Amino acid sequence: MRSQPLRWIFLDRIDELVVGERVVGAYTWPDALGIFDQHFPEWPVVPGVLLMEALAQLSGKAIGYTVRAQRGDWPWPILSMMRDVKFRKFVRPDEEVVLEARFLALRDESASMKVVARRDGRPVAQAEQIFVFQAVPIEEPDVRRRVEDVEAGELKRLWPGFDPKVWG
User: Fold this and answer.
1) What percent of the chain has pLDDT over 90?
2) How far apart are CA 5 and CA 83, in angstroms?
3) Catalytic center residues
4) Angle at 143 between CA 139 and CA 146, to 5 degrees
5) What structural domains and CATH numbers belong to the chain?
6) Model-level pTM?
7) Secondary structure (3-state) at 135
8) pLDDT beyond 70 at 3
9) DSSP string spanning 62-104?
10) pLDDT of 134
């Protein structure tokens, strides 16, 4: 069984996470990524879908930690829909993007987040992202625990404020 985090992590760090309210982090897409050879030749820019994925990864961390802190389980948040997606400015390789997500709603089986990506303090992308929980539940306790341990390890790596007591 594979017990590694996602292969494509678009988060360098989490700077702030306020349970049930908001999360702020950052990512810089390195110029060496192969995607920039074709998107676009001679003038590389970060694909908008990757900006949305970075925001979804950040939101997922906040949702997972919040649900764990509030009800003691991990919801396995899965991005299921986006609304009002806007791309405002290009992001070039090696430019740091500050990512922010705010809770709009947190329900038993879903969450809605307002997300914004900024470069130099100015919005470059934004959306509302909707997540569902445990679209495919992990039935085997050992497998579930390993997946949750990987998630806890990633949170600890990214966020200096990670409290292992919340994770249990």
Assistant:
1) 80
2) 27
3) 39
4) 140
5) 13-151 (3.10.129.10)
6) 0.94
7) coil
8) no
9) HHHHHHHHHHSS---EEEEEEEEEEE-S---TT-EEEEEEEEE
10) 82
